[in-house]
């Protein structure tokens, strides 16, 4: 599984836009919905906050919003923290390097973008969803984007072709083909809805689709 440590962390910001078609658009669409639904002084939980992409943009949208940045990789969060300091927003962000189970928040919204596809469907995905549920208010929306199970035989190849156009090297394309088999635990829509229902979430609504990547608001 991807560890997001060392070089994987330091090179993340340069690489991710070659690896996820529509990466910027996914974030723009997610942020626009938060802007449309949240009031001043909202508290946003960002699960798998990585290098801080979500928080850096959201902090600029509303100066009163506060954030919890959770991630299992201290290396990713260290990069995020440096960026928060640079942007002068570190007093609005609580960092948590470790499991989400250790938190007890009442957040107004939660984001989990490009994270849960790395978590196995052996009880771990369900535990992650339960932990998100227990850290948000009753009416809070959750935004989840994952690589889903392929729906056509040519979808993954098309994704690699798209990433090549976005600047992914030949070696990167070979890695991507391998990673599709070994790094991800993609769900189909039925199983995703079933897990959400088991965790007392409502029906997911699709708001982003780029080949295998689907973004849902719940
Ligand atoms: C592809 S990055 C996405 C980062 C950020 N959300 C973005 O959109 O750029 C995936 C992140 O999820 C983190 N991660 C993986 N498994 C996790 C888990 N079970 N709980 C929280 N974070 C996790 C990784 O450490 C990594 O920082």
Question: How is this structure best summarized?
Answer:
This protein is an alpha/beta fold. The chain has helices at residues 7-10, 12-19, 23-37, 53-61, 74-87, 124-134, 155-165, 170-182, 189-198, and strands spanning 43-47, 66-71, 93-97, 107-113, 136-147, 205-210, 213-217. It is built from nine helices and seven strands.
How would you describe the overall organization of this protein?
This protein is an alpha/beta fold. The protein has a single domain (7-217), classed as Rossmann fold (3-Layer(aba) Sandwich), CATH 3.40.50.150. 44% of the residues lie in helices and 21% in strands. The protein is built from 9 helices and 7 strands, in the order αααβαβαββαβαααββ. The protein has helices at residues 7-10, 12-19, 23-37, 53-61, 74-87, 124-134, 155-165, 170-182, 189-198; strands at residues 43-47, 66-71, 93-97, 107-113, 136-147, 205-210, 213-217. The chain has a 7-stranded mixed sheet with strand order 3-2-1-4-5-7-6. A hairpin with a 2-residue loop joins strand 6 and strand 7. The protein is globular, with a radius of gyration of 17 Å. The two termini are 27 Å apart. The model has no long low-confidence stretch (mean pLDDT 96). S-adenosylmethionine is lined by residues 4, 16, 47-48, 50, 53-54, 70-73, 76, 100, 113-115, 118-119, 128.
């Amino acid at each position: 599984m991807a560890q997001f440590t060392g070089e994987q962390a330091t090179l993340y910001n340069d690489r991710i836009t070659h690896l996820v078609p529509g990466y910027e658009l996914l974030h723009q669409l997610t942020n626009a919905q938060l802007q449309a639904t949240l009031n001043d002084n909202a508290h946003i939980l960002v699960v798998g906050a990585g290098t801080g992409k979500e928080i850096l943009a959201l902090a600029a949208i509303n100066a009163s919003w506060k954030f919890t940045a959770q991630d299992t990789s201290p290396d990713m969060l260290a990069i995020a923290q440096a960026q928060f300091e640079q942007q002068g927003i570190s007093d609005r962000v609580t960092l948590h390097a470790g499991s989400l189970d250790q938190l007890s928040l009442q957040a107004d919204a939660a984001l989990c973008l490009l994270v849960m596809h790395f978590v196995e469907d052996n009880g771990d995905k369900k535990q992650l969803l339960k932990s998100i549920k227990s850290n948000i208010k009753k009416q809070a929306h959750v935004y989840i984007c994952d690589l889903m199970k392929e729906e056509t035989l040519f979808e993954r190849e098309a994704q690699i072709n798209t990433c090549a156009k976005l600047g992914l090297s030949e070696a990167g394309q070979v890695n991507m083909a391998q990673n599709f088999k070994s790094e991800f635990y993609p769900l189909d829509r039925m199983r995703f809805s079933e897990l959400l229902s088991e965790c007392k979430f409502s029906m997911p609504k699709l708001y982003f689709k780029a080949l295998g990547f689907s973004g849902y608001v719940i």
